[in-house]
UniProtKB/TrEMBL annotation:
One of its GO terms (molecular function) is aspartic-type endopeptidase activity. CDD domains: retropepsin_like. It comes from Circinella minor. The keyword Repeat does not apply. GO terms for biological process: proteolysis. Keywords: Aspartyl protease, Hydrolase, Protease. InterPro entries: Aspartic_peptidase_AS (IPR001969), Peptidase_aspartic_dom_sf (IPR021109). This is Uncharacterized protein. SUPFAM superfamilies: Acid proteases. The lineage of its organism: Eukaryota, Fungi, Fungi incertae sedis, Mucoromycota, Mucoromycotina.
Length: 247
């Protein structure tokens, strides 16, 4: 049998916990693999004894001390224990515990899976909840305050909404009191809420926009605004906005 094949079969016969330790060290011969297996087995048993002493209990079935250490992988059926007295001196295993990967994880590196959270975690959770509530409040806003401009119309100060979404201009009936109106038959307008309103009057408004005096035709329609100036007014006047002063 080839040495490599024999080495593979030897490693496959090891216990899973020992096999991983041995294979990750890439032994090149059966002798080296045997030394590693014995060292790992001894280290694991030594760790178990230390843990038992720290927790104040001993194994339920104590074993008598034996001068010959029999590793776990030799406990399987059909495999005889190895007589270490017959092993040449060059193959005597070195039970160096430092060759094994530490099996005890430091307490500070453990992950706390308990329900108790420290102060930092609780504060972070509160902050996340506040942010979530804030974003939800922003998403729930259906309407926002629209910018209104102050103008003079028919001798009184009115609050004006400039709306490029409206094709025409509209004025409240209270603003046009005393001004001559014209009848407009079969005219309707649909509001932003989907309501269709009938319009039957039109009026020419005298406007004074901070010294800019002009006239504008508007339909009489009672809304929550005094005056709505639509695209028809924007095309006629072509105002230049001052973004710094919002005028």
């Amino acid at each position: 049998m080839m040495d490599k094949e024999a080495l593979d079969r030897f490693q496959c016969g090891l216990a899973p916990t020992i096999r991983l330790e041995v294979m990750t060290r890439f032994p090149t011969s059966i002798d080296e693999a045997m030394r590693l297996a014995l060292a790992v087995e001894a280290a694991q048993q030594h760790s178990q004894n230390i843990l038992a002493e720290q927790h104040g209990f001993s194994p339920s079935h104590p074993q008598q001390a034996s001068p010959q250490l029999v590793p776990e992988y030799l406990h399987t059926s059909g495999v005889a224990a190895m007589d270490l007295d017959g092993v040449p001196a060059r193959t005597t295993p070195s039970l160096n515990v430092t060759e094994s990967i530490p099996l005890v994880v430091p307490e500070e590196e453990l992950i706390d899976l308990s329900d108790d959270q420290d102060v930092v975690s609780q504060e972070l959770q509160k902050t996340l909840e506040k942010d979530k509530n804030y974003f939800n409040s922003l998403l729930s806003i259906k309407e926002s305050d629209l910018p209104l401009y102050l103008m003079s119309c028919n001798g009184r100060a009115v609050k004006v909404l400039i709306d490029s979404g409206a094709s025409r201009s509209y004025v409240a009936s209270t603003i046009v009191a005393g001004l001559p109106t014209r009848l407009i038959p079969n005219r309707e307008v649909e509001t932003a809420g989907g309501h269709v309103l009938a319009i039957n009057k039109q009026v020419t408004l005298p406007l004074d926009a901070q010294g800019y005096k002009h006239t504008m035709n508007a339909y009489v329609l009672d809304t929550k605004f005094d005056l709505i100036l639509g695209r028809s007014w924007l095309k006629t006047v072509q105002p230049t906005p001052n973004w710094a002063s919002d005028t």
